[in-house]
Design a protein that fits this description.
It is a single chain. The chain is α+β, with helices and mostly antiparallel strands. It folds into two domains: 174 residues, no CATH class; 164 residues, no CATH class. It contains 15 helices and eleven strands. Strands 3-4-8-5-7-6 form a six-stranded mixed beta barrel. A two-stranded antiparallel sheet has the order 2-9. Strand 3 and strand 4 form a beta hairpin. Helix 4 crosses helix 13. The longest helix has 34 residues. It is elongated. It starts with a helix and ends in a 9-residue tail after the last helix. 41% of the residues are buried.
Length: 394
């Protein structure tokens, strides 16, 4: 018997047109037929969305914290010892470089910043390694440092710490007397937004006090920050400073900020671990969605055979399977978003530097829809390849 006699007469155009108007309805019927499988798909996608958003928040917060101090200082240029990879692992710089830098045309001011590790003695007697940061009063700072700047101009031995590190450093009340590197200090206040990801909290103070606590020599400093006159060309002045100071590195603020982030992201392996976890979240969601969409397609393979038998075009069948995947992605993403914000907020109490910009969840929803689209590829091929004659088999 020929194929034409098996399939019978061709369907009317109106029948084909009616079928072509219902891909969403048919896709929903296929998904809702087995609700337990649909629920598993939604949970898998929601978990993948949460994991990708959370890992993305960790990565963005990690990079933001890695250059937070550099970004907060209103300097055009940073002068560091040669080979310094980032702000947190600095090396001493000859203090005389300040006068040399001031002699470069276009430089209007050069100030000193000290940074280094110091020993913080807690009230319990235990010791904690902290990253001590000191700036001269003339160093331009952004809003997060304004109170710190004004206070340290007036109060010798005053130190400030981030509010998130109160418990770590055992500071129960302000002011509080303590010792740093066996020298007297006094906690004068708190700052916000400088949670450390190193395990060594940031502590801020005056430049002169930081020199004593860190133990810098009289002819040493750690960083020099310079301001450039308007209209002199930032890159041109930077290049002149590099010629004047061949034993140092000279970076624009943007360049040094990027250098800090790249160091922590690439050279330490920490950023790679976070990226790997985010990729695993994507792959977990992809496998779960692929398995469930494929199983749903195979459960309804006779229906797709019927559609082909009545003359439904390949594009229509493809749209049904793809719609199933996209609908699953939308439901799963919605559930994932609903669970992400309270969970991230709860985790921020233990990881304060986690950062979730508004565009990250939106971007992860788009990624999840892409994931669902990729997951439907195998199902689309199976549905399109089914033989129309299968519907007539006993």
């Amino acid at each position: 018997m020929g194929a034409g006699s098996v399939l019978g007469t061709a369907p009317a155009k109106g029948q084909r047109r009616k079928a072509s108007r219902r891909p969403m309805k048919l896709a929903w019927q296929n998904l809702s037929y087995d609700r337990s499988r649909f629920a598993v798909t939604i949970v898998g996608i929601a978990f993948a969305v949460f994991l990708m958003i959370f890992q993305g928040s960790l990565l963005l917060g990690f990079l933001r914290a890695a250059s937070k101090v550099v970004d907060s200082v209103e300097a055009d240029l940073w002068i560091t010892a040669r080979g310094v990879p980032c702000f947190d692992f600095a090396a001493p710089l000859p203090d005389r470089f300040r006068e040399l830098a001031l002699g470069v045309p276009g430089v209007i001011s050069v100030e000193r910043v000290a940074s280094g590790f110091a020993s913080w003695q807690k009230p319990s007697g235990a010791r904690q390694i902290v990253v001590l940061v000191g700036m001269e009063p003339e160093v331009g700072v952004r809003s997060a440092f304004q109170d710190l700047r004004h206070e340290t101009e007036l109060a010798p031995e005053a130190v400030f710490l981030d509010r998130s590190n109160r418990d770590t450093l055992e500071v129960t009340a302000v002011p509080a007397e303590l010792e740093i590197s066996r020298r007297r200090a006094r906690v004068a206040g708190m700052v916000e937004g400088f949670s450390s990801f190193l395990g060594s909290p940031y502590v801020f103070t005056r430049y002169r006090d930081a020199v004593r606590y860190i133990g810098l020599g009289q002819e040493e400093t750690v960083f020099l920050v310079a301001r450039v006159a308007a209209g002199r060309g930032l890159d041109r002045v930077r290049d002149r400073l590099r010629l004047r100071l061949p034993e140092a590195n000279v970076w624009t603020r943007v360049e040094f900020s990027r250098r800090c982030r790249v160091y922590w992201l690439v050279q330490t392996g920490a950023g790679g671990s976070i990226l790997t976890a985010a990729l695993l979240g994507f792959l977990v969601g992809l496998v779960i969605v692929s398995q469930n969409i494929y199983a749903t397609t195979m459960d309804n393979i006779e229906e797709f055979a019927t559609l082909k038998a009545i003359g439904a075009p390949r594009r229509y069948i493809q749209s049904v399977v793809l719609t199933q995947a996209i609908v699953s992605g939308l439901f799963g993403s919605g559930v994932g978003l609903l669970g992400t914000y309270p969970l991230v907020a709860a985790l921020r109490t233990s990881i304060p530097w986690v950062y979730t910009p508004w565009w990250l969840p939106l971007g992860m929803v788009l990624v999840s829809l892409l994931m669902c689209g990729l997951a439907s590829v195998a199902s689309v091929r199976k549905a399109v390849a089914v033989e129309p004659a299968r519907v007539f088999r006993a």
